C-alpha cells in the first residue's frame, strides 16, 4: 500500500507540473504558432474566389451539419450585438476546421460520428477558441470608457457575472457543451470591439471580414489601426491547401455555403 501511495503521489505531482508548465507556456506566448500574411492582396482576392477546396472535404460536410444545430443561438447573438451572424460563423468555421484537422483521433471517434462541434477547454476555450486572458480583456473593455475598445454605456453590463467566483463562472460559460450562447457572445463582442477601435481611428473594417478575422486571431495587442491592413494570421492547412486564419474566414464568408442559415 505504501508503494501504491507513493506512485499515486508521483503521478499527481507530475500532472501538476505539466499543468503549471502549460499555464506558463500560454502566458508567455510559447504556444502561439507563427502565422502568415497574405501580402499580395489582389492575388488573394482572386484566390479565394477560385479556391474553395475546403468545401469538398469530409471535415466540412461534418462541420456544416454541426453548425446548423446552432443556427438559432448564433442568430440570437447576432441580433443582440449587431454583429453579422455570417461573420461569427466565418470565424467559427476556421476554429473548428483547424481543430478537426489537428485532433484527428478525437475527430474520428467523436466529432465525425456525432456531427458535433469541438469544445476546447485547455489553452483556448469553447467552440470559438477564446483564451482566458482574451475573455478577461473583453470584459474589462466593456467597463473601461478610456479603452479604445469601449463600446459605450449601453454595453457595459452585457457580460456581468451572477456570482463572485468569476474565474469559475467564465470557464463554465465558455466551455458549456449544451448551451454555447456565451461562446458566441464573447466572440461577437470581441469582433465588435476590434471593429470599433478601427472605426474610431478612421479606418473602418466592418465590411472586411478577412481583416476582422485576422485581428480576432492575433489579439488586442496586435490590433494597430492603419490605412492598408493585411489579411493573415495562423497557418491552417486544409486538403493540402495552406490558408491564413483571416483568408480562410473570408473564403467561407464569400462562398455559397450556409447562406440559407446565415445571410451575407
Features:
single chain; 56% helix; three-stranded antiparallel beta sheet; 5 strands; 264 residues; mainly alpha; two-stranded antiparallel ribbon
Instruction: Estimate percent helicity.
Output: 55-70%
Number of domains: 2
Class by alpha and beta content: mainly alpha
Order of helices and strands: HEHHHHHEEHHHHEEH
Describe the largest sheet: 3 strands, antiparallel
- What count of helical segments does DSSP give? 11
Task: Count the E strands.
Answer: 5
Name the shape in a single word. Answer: globular
Overall pLDDT score? 87
| Low-pLDDT sequence parts | 21-33, 39-49
Describe the structure concisely.
This protein is mainly alpha-helical.
Q: What features would you describe in this structure?
A:
- The protein has 11 helices and 5 strands; from the N terminus they run αβαααααββααααββα.
- The chain has helices at 2-27, 41-50, 58-68, 71-81, 85-102, 104-114, 132-143, 166-175, 181-200, 209-218, 245-254; strands at 35-38, 120-121, 125-126, 231-238, 241-244.
- The protein is globular and about 45 Å long.
- 56% of the residues lie in helices and 8% in strands.
- By secondary structure, the protein is mainly alpha-helical.
- The longest helix is centred in the N-terminal third of the chain and has 26 residues, at 2-27.
